[in-house]
Structures are given as C-alpha cells and as structure tokens.
From TrEMBL:
InterPro entries xrefs: RmlC-like_jellyroll, RmlC_Cupin_sf
Basic and acidic residues bias locations: 108-117
CDD domains assigned to the protein according to its UniProt record, in alphabetical order: cupin_BLL0285-like
Entry protein name: Quercetin dioxygenase-like cupin family protein
Amino acid sequence: MSEPNPPAMPYWHVYTDAEGVSRQKKCALTHFTFEGVDPQTAPQWNDKQEKSEAAVTFTVLPVGWVGQWHENPRPQWIAVLSGRWFVETMDGTRVEMGPGELMMGEDQGTKERDGKKGHLSGTVGDEPCTMIVTGLDVTPTIDQPGRFK
C-alpha cells in the first residue's frame, strides 16, 4: 500500500487577540504522519498534539440552552457528536457547528467590552447538542490562531 497524501482536518479556533477581543478563525490540523499506533497495527494518519494532562467531559446542551458571555475555562477541544450549536465571539462572528465539527476554545484573557467577555454560545434547532469536551492543561496563548497545526 503506497502512502497517500497527508490529510487536513478543519477546526474553528476561538482565540483572544492582542487587544483582548475574542475572535474565530477556520484553521486545520496538518501535521499528520502515516504510521501505526503500534507495530502490529496498519498505518493510519495521526496528528499527535503536545502531551498534556486532560479532562474529558461528555456534555448535553438542552434545547434552547444559552451560555451567556463567558470564557472557556481552559484551552479545550470540543467535538460535536449530535445536534447543533453556535458560538459568537466579541468581534461579532457567529459560527454554527454540527456533528463531526471540531473547535478549539482558547479565549482566556479577554477584556470586557460593551458587556461582552469571551463568547456567547447556545443550541440551534429542536434537539439537544451532544459533545465531547477535552480540556487541556496547557498555557493559553494570545493572538495565535491556528497554533494547533
């Protein structure tokens, strides 16, 4: 089997800019290597992230749920499993995400402006939004969208 071209996996990066405003940028994981997870396993594409302690939470956001303006508690990967949700950042960008979509929440250190700090999020539609949230024990960065390549 010949090695195919490396994939790119899209994600939304919610981050804090140099002025303390939360923003969103479409980025992609691109540092994939074609290897088995062990010598007995067929090769697959893996993008190994920086080692860190992690806390995994399975979340169900009820229909009509709105999480008022807040920052992510720590840098965290959020993968939508079912349903839909939205994230609105302080710059006015609103992104809706559904099953299979990925987001990195890293808007720590924002500065309140017009009653907004961090991001606003909530469910979209008439079904709950289920997700897996993986919080990382890493230092948040400022103005580095796409740092998880």
